[in-house]
Design brief:
It is a single chain. By secondary structure, the chain is of the alpha/beta class. The protein folds into two domains: 1-38, no CATH class; 48-316, Aminopeptidase (3-Layer(aba) Sandwich). It has nine helices and eight strands. The protein has helices at residues 2-6, 13-23, 88-107, 128-135, 168-181, 197-201, 229-257, 273-276, 285-304, and strands spanning 48-56, 66-72, 114-120, 144-150, 159-163, 186-188, 206-211, 309-316. Strands 6-5-7-4-2-3-1-8 form an eight-stranded mixed sheet, sandwiched between helices. β5 (159-163), α5 (168-181) and β6 form a beta-alpha-beta unit. The model is unreliable at 257-270 and 292-309 (pLDDT under 50).
């Protein structure tokens, strides 16, 4: 159709594309023809979306504090040719890492403060799932120690952490944790673009891990066979250590405030960040494929429709 519109004597679409690729500049010009296009489109004004929350209560029954670790499980659906956008890196990788951290925490000794794991829907439609949570949080945002966002953590040239300079305690915890694990990260300022934006707007300490750039971002080539297992393990260990350090600091502050003697961290039922490193993470790329399958099946519901009404499914792990 494009060559027909351009005309027999005009440049071909392929030649225009070659010039754009060569000069990296637009090749716009005025056509002498008028083109009329008719498109049929359907739009669902109101649709349901679902955030899935997993909750691990802390060992201190008096603590109201919580650390949230989240990732979005929705993705794009298909292109015009019917090719499926599977979203292995964006963001089945983040969901798999989040689920692995939840597994380790649920099987190890519990930390003092609670941990909430959030699988968001509607991120590709404008971070609608996390927006809904921020408006109706399961835990008060004032009691949320920090939100740690995992978005595209399986494949990319560099592990990047986006964090505002205002969150000094979280930045210090990030730096110390990366040094302890020997993880190389590129720290950038907060720029939004994912589910952590609504926590930033509500003045909750937050960061986002992302491996960037990814040349297959938002394309059908975002497949699980490109994701190295070591990237998932590295991100899982770093995120988990940050969460544990934050919980330890918060638990110490609460104990001092209550003028109660700090008990030994080696006591049965308490886990510290040092002990946490000895737990074995076992993120498998097969988990990515599983999450990709779930996200692909759900894509038509959560991405093509615009979800305005969100429901929460909560799973508690003791």
């Amino acid at each position: 159709m494009a060559d027909t519109v351009l005309g027999e004597r005009g440049p071909s679409l392929s030649s225009i594309q070659r010039l754009m690729n060569q000069d990296l500049k637009p090749q716009s010009f005025v056509l002498s023809k008028m083109l009329r296009v008719s498109v049929r489109a359907s739009f669902t004004e109101n649709a349901n979306g679902y955030n899935v929350l997993g909750f691990i209560p802390g060992s201190d029954p008096f603590s109201k504090k919580v650390v949230i670790i989240g990732a979005h499980y929705d993705h794009l659906e298909k292109d015009v040719d019917g090719n499926i956008f599977r979203g292995a890196n964006d963001d089945a990788s983040g969901v798999a890492v989040m689920m692995e951290i939840a597994r380790v925490l649920s099987t190890a000794s519990r930390p003092k403060c609670s941990a909430l794991f959030a699988a968001w829907s509607g991120e590709e439609e404008g971070t609608r799932g996390s927006y809904a949570y921020a408006n109706r949080p399961f835990f008060p945002l004032s009691e949320t120690i920090a939100y740690l966002n995992l978005d595209m953590v399986g494949y990319g040239q560099q592990l990047v952490c986006q964090i505002s300079e205002a969150h000094k305690t979280l930045r210090t915890t990030l730096d110390e944790s990366a040094v302890q694990l020997g993880v190389s990260i590129s720290v950038e300022k907060f720029s939004g673009g994912s589910d952590h934006v609504h926590f930033e707007r509500n003045k909750v300490a937050n960061l986002m891990f992302i491996r960037w750039p990814d040349e297959f971002y938002h394309t059908p080539r975002d497949m699980d066979d490109r994701i190295p297992r070591k990237n998932l393990l590295e991100t899982a260990r770093l995120t988990a250590l940050i969460a544990m350090r934050l919980i330890e600091v918060e638990a110490t502050v609460e104990t001092v405030t209550a003028t109660v003697r700090v008990t030994s961290s080696s006591r049965t039922g308490i886990v510290t960040s040092g002990q946490f490193l000895t737990d074995v993470f076992s993120v498998n790329v097969l988990a990515i494929a599983g999450v990709v399958f779930i996200a692909t099946v759900a894509a038509g519901v959560f991405c093509i429709r615009r979800p305005n009404i969100f429901h929460r499914r909560v799973v508690a792990a003791s």
